[in-house]
Amino acid sequence: MGVNIKSEEARARKAAVEAEKNQREQREKEDKYWTEAEGSKSKAAKKKEEEAERRAEAAAKRAEAKKLAEQEEAEIEKALTKVDKKVNRVAVSAFEEAELQRLKKEKPGLTHTQYKDLIWKLWKKSPDNPVNQAGPS
């Protein structure tokens, strides 16, 4: 009897697939053996990873310190602004009292609001005004 060509080809393909599967399993076993022997990572890779972690921690600490410094600076600036506003209010009220007396003598008959407007215009130009004392920064 003759040989069936199709069945022979199928057996050959099946044998080739089986041989490839065995080779792959053999390679996986070898790779597994060597990774277990070396550890999951080499020493150099572990060292690089640890160094990267240290750098990240240092960067996080620097960022936190910078954030705290900015918060402190903002709080100090806020406190100084409050003090400046109080000093400014005191200076305005002292200037207002002195000028009100003078303006009432110079320009009698004006309403209180008109006196206040004149005083405010004078205050904007006055050398006693802290804004005018600051000068260009």
From TrEMBL:
<dbReference type="InterPro" id="IPR010422">
    <property type="entry name" value="Ccdc124/Oxs1"/>
</dbReference>
<feature type="region of interest" description="Disordered">
    <location>
        <begin position="1"/>
        <end position="70"/>
    </location>
</feature>
<keyword id="KW-0175">Coiled coil</keyword>
<feature type="domain" description="Coiled-coil">
    <location>
        <begin position="77"/>
        <end position="133"/>
    </location>
</feature>
<comment type="similarity">
    <text>Belongs to the CCDC124 family.</text>
</comment>
<protein>
    <recommendedName>
        <fullName>Coiled-coil domain-containing protein</fullName>
    </recommendedName>
</protein>
<dbReference type="Pfam" id="PF06244">
    <property type="entry name" value="Ccdc124"/>
</dbReference>
<dbReference type="InterPro" id="IPR054414">
    <property type="entry name" value="Ccdc124/Oxs1_C"/>
</dbReference>
